[in-house]
Description:
- This protein has 19 helices and 8 strands.
- The chain is α/β, with parallel strands linked by helices.
- Among the domains are: 75 residues, no CATH class; 140 residues, Rossmann fold (3-Layer(aba) Sandwich), CATH 3.40.50.
- Strands 4-3-5-6-7-8 form a 6-stranded mixed β-sheet, with helices on both faces.
- The longest helix is centred in the N-terminal third of the chain and has 85 residues.
- It is found in: Nucleus.
- InterPro entries: ERCC4_domain (IPR006166), Restrct_endonuc-II-like (IPR011335), RuvA_2-like (IPR010994), XPF_nuclease (IPR047520).
- One of its GO terms (molecular function) is single-stranded DNA binding.
- Its main location: nucleus.
Amino acid sequence: AESSAAVPTGGSEGLQDGQEKEKLDETITLTQIHEKYRFVGESSDSESQDDEDEQHKEKRREAKILKKEKLKKKEEEKKIRKNLFSSPLILVQSLKNYSDPFALPRTLRELQPRYIILYDCDLDFIRQVEVWQAECAPHQCLVYLMLYKGTTEEQLYLSQVKREKDAFHYLITEKASLVFPEHAEGRTDDHPDLQRDPRCAADRLETNADTRRGGPTDQEQQESRVIVDMREFRSELPALIHKRGIEIDPVTIEVGDYILSPEMCVERKSLSDLVGSLNSGRLYSQAVSMTRHYTKPILLIEFDQNKPFHLQASVLSNSRGASQFGTLNQGEPDNRDVTAKLQLLTLHFPRLRLLWCSSPYATAEIFHLLKTGKAEPDVTTAQAIKSDSCSIDELEKYNPIIHDFISKLPGITTKNINCILRNVHDLPTLLTLSQSAITDLLGNSVQAAQLYAALHATLRQEDIEQDVSRAKVKGKLTRKGLPKFANK
Length: 488
């Protein structure tokens, strides 16, 4: 019974072992399949990584090749430069380029010369070379001048150097006597050729508004504008004014060339126009018209930026109208001199102001400063003013012809002329006044005595002959033979 019982037991164990083997086979097969598929996936990932590594390697190789090519090119360029500049390179360059004032400094910075030979000695060019040498020159530059000794060319160069030294000495002495802070040297960072302010000039003048008043500001800021005569557009000044953000109103006006404000009128004269206008007397009539209609008449004398900024005899002789000077008599003073005529003009018109500008750029900057805080001009009012008409105030008050006549009398000044015009009805009434009455009107006994003597003194022939003889001795005669300055 025991043996028979053991057989089925062994059979059941065999069945269990078979089932376990089948399970193992199944598990092995699944793991193998899983490993197989996982191996396939892993092999694809490794292949993509290998491709990426190869691409990186190729890029690195290309970068190395490019670096080598760049280094070769740089070495070749260095060799070319060494071979090029090892031999002397001669360039012929003009000194002045009127279209571009910065051409010469730019050429010096680009070429960086070691030696400069000047065929025509120009002091301005030498000073520009000195500035370039002090600023950014990598080496010392030698300048040679080609001159014939003892000639007018040498003397001209020496006179330019002497004039420059005298100008600096004069500037030093004048600056020592002026009363202003030492740091105020007149230098500014604004240069019209280098930068342009994109803002409008009216925006820059917003600081002139009164900030002490409270409440909202309803007034809109007016655009800064200048009235310009149509004939002035032949010059470059209107364009420079517009470049600074100021609006231009081109109209035809008879009095003045530029109207900056309702009170300010400017008559522009170049050096040649100034000489011609002084000789023909046209400037006198223009000054009369400006002083009648504007409280602040201005005479602008504008120089050429390529010429010296001073009244020089050579410049005046080449100016238009200088041929009208003629030859002066030995006994006649040089009353045709420009400086003397300008002095007489300022004596006749005390309210006339003179502006001396070295170039149109300086003129545009001065105009901008003069307009600061001023009212804007009216086009219709400027066009309505005629050269042969009088201002509204003068039409209501005095006749301009009588005003000019009274202003020329001895003892009459700009301060006391209105006292005579207000209190004296006409010239016969003035002649009947006593010296004490005139003193009461003028408020000055010396000026009253001069006016009374001029109105009541008798001129005798003996006095005229004495004045003529004295003038002959001193050489003060006019072209008609009359004494220029009479003592009586």
